[in-house]
Amino acid sequence: MEFAEYFPIWDKLTPSEKERLSRGAVLRQVKKGALLHNGSMDCLGLLLVREGQLRAYIYSDTGREVTIYRLFVLDIWRFSASCIMQSIQFDITIEAEKDSLIWVIPPELYKDVMEHSAPLANYTSQIMASRFTDVMWLVEQIMWKSLDQRLAAFLLEESSLEDSPVLRLTHEKIASHMGTAREVITRMLRYFQEEGMVSLSRGTITIQDPERLARLQD
């Protein structure tokens, strides 16, 4: 499928703008675990996911990772707009959680087209606002939700994403997503296992009682 079929406001652009974006967009294949961007890298531009799954995260003051959102098919890496809108400053790391295909629009090209296109400028503002809302939701969860509630929500979300009750996740990986220590996650998962909500084996977590995990979130 062509880039035009994935870009949400394509029909609102002029023929010239469409030609420039479609010619400038580069399709890249990235392997699971590949690092696409971090604060020390040059601006990569705007990313649009065609296939796969990406993870966006930041580092806490203690050096721990905290996942702020995932990017799926049709999602755009919103905070890459910080390269384009210089008043936005946000250090973020993007890695591929699965083998992925992504389009990359060079920042200079996107910025130039955006400066002459009201629809694209409005869309850029909307997607920035959308991701800011996601980040504020995360802050609220960390501040007001207990770890058992957050872990229950995380396990159910992963189960939904994978369409399976069997999750091939290490405790270290979960800790990275949630911004805490592996030992803390291990203790909480063992408690979940003792209560019959999950079963644990090496590198695998199987959800046994999703209804109870769901109630735990309330």
Keyphrases for this structure?
elongated, alpha+beta, 3-stranded antiparallel beta sheet, 7 helices, 41% helix, 218 residues, Arc Repressor Mutant, subunit A, 10 strands, Jelly Rolls, 2 domains, single chain
Task: Return Rg in Å.
Answer: 19 Å
SSE series? HEEEEEEEHHHEHHEEH
N- and C-termini, Cα separation:
42 Å
| Averaged pLDDT | 86
Under CATH at level 1, the class of the largest domain stands as Mainly Beta
Number of domains: 2
Q: Which CATH architecture of the largest domain would you pick? A: Sandwich
- Strands, count: 10
Put simply, the count of helices is 7
The share of residues in extended strands comes to 15-25%
Low-confidence stretches: none
- The CATH topology of the largest domain is given as Jelly Rolls
Q: Helix- and strand-based class? A: alpha+beta
**Major sheet strand order:** 2-6-4-5
Would you identify the CATH H-level superfamily of the largest domain?
A: Jelly Rolls
Q: Tell me roughly what share of residues is in helical segments.
A: 40-55%
Largest sheet: 4 strands, antiparallel
Q: What is the molecular shape?
A: elongated
Structural account:
The protein is of the alpha+beta class and 218 residues long. The protein folds into two domains: 3-143, Sandwich (Jelly Rolls); 145-216, Winged helix-like DNA-binding domain superfamily/Winged helix DNA-binding domain (Arc Repressor Mutant, subunit A), CATH 1.10.10.10. The chain is 41% helix and 22% strand. The protein has seven helices and ten strands. It has a four-stranded antiparallel sheet. Strands 1-7-3 form a three-stranded antiparallel sheet. A hairpin with a 5-residue loop joins strand 4 and strand 5. 24% of the residues are buried.
